[in-house]
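User: Structure with pyridoxal-5'-phosphate, tokens only please.
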Amino acid sequence: MGQNTLDPEDWGAFRASAHKLLDTAIDKMQSAKEGRVWTPLPEGMKEVLRADLPADGLDHESLQMKLAELLPYGVGNTHPRFFGWVHGAGNPGNVLAEITSAAMNANLGGRDHGAIYVEQQVIEWSRQMMGFPEEASGLVVSGTSMATIIACKVARDSRLDYQCREHGVGKAPLVGYVSEQAHSCIARAFDLLGLGSGSLRRIPCNDDFSMNLAALQKAIEDDRAQGFEPFFVVGTAGSVNVGAIDNLDALAEMAKKENLWFHVDGAFGATAILSKTVQERLSGLNRADSLAFDFHKWLQVNYDAGCVLIRSKKKHLQSFSGRAEYLTGVNKGLAAGELWPVDLGPELSRGFRALKVWAHILEHGVDKLGACIDENCRQAAYLGEKVKQSAQFELLAPVALNIVCFRYLSETESDLDTLNRDIVIALQERGIAAPSTTFLNGKLAIRVNITNHRTDIQDLDLLLEEIQKIGNEFAK
Ligand SMILES: *Cc1c(COP(=O)(O)O)cnc(C)c1O
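Assistant:
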């Protein structure tokens, strides 16, 4: 053994502290429904985390305690009353997948080893789930933001005949379209890819916050008249603000007619294809040229894990492969493997995210995952009804999916934006619940997103009670 190995000197002590930490982690998850939602990191611990670079290491016991100390201070998304933004709640089973993946320490850039086959299986399952054709390809990535960059690049490169890979985009007058409710990651992708975020047109929405297709048609025509080249349109399947779903079938038609790449941002909404009640409204999703979605949101896989699917594997490879003869590699030995992930995305070294997705789907099966999604939609509908029926609240958007946007009304307080913002902050700081806020038609909304398999109806009742209590307290 080398003098400087990083393996434990005392495997027994390592094993004992590892088992202890595993128990502490399981305790934490078993009690996920109890206690505060969000607990800010105490000053003392912030101080500890500003320590100087250590020259010497710790013993196993001390390190295990340091790790365990962090457990209470997450975002709060493991709690049933975490309603902010769009966060998945995670699941205990993934702890085992993460242990396995850490023990393997696999690099999924390529080569021929077990982990590669697991990722291929996850992509194949995703393809089946989303109804993409057999010649589709895909990659497990950090999340929808990265998936969007990859999809946009394939769209851009295929439009410019892959010349831009070497020569840059120059002054290519390419423009794309999203709804005003679309996520900012698409504009970021345009920025990163040298197209410029200004080349992404934001199309107004209908009353239900889905993209107005007449406005889209007009924007395309106006752009063409001005010498721009429309090449890309995004359908949002589940918008961040209100959970709106664009008319994907109509967008697929329009994309075909106008010769545009049709991308779908289905970060959380696409996985609702597993829900019997939502499925139908995602019709057209399987016609997309590319799809970005997350496993870590509504499928409850632990952070982070998302997916990009590209309808044409050929185009996907042409956009990312550095190997001229990308379909022929070595066919024996560790360097074999017909398709290396490095030829499908920007990263060479890649971790084994796919394992926790694979294990999660194996553990629960997709019917149960779909049932959790169904239940969240029923809960959102319930909350929306309660809000509608109470004179104390105003519903600010129709409940399309799993998101309820509303505000507390007060007879004594005229600045409702400030009042509602303060209510949300108080809910978070008091550890009661963690909704977030957004603006809809100029009004600040309390935004309750339910992508949480631990949420019960009682959590929603309690939320409304507490909002009323705090609203009453603040309005005086
Ligand atoms: C969360 C979200 C994104 C970004 O996904 P990440 O996984 O956070 O990168 C994009 N679009 C929508 C609609 C989202 O909800």
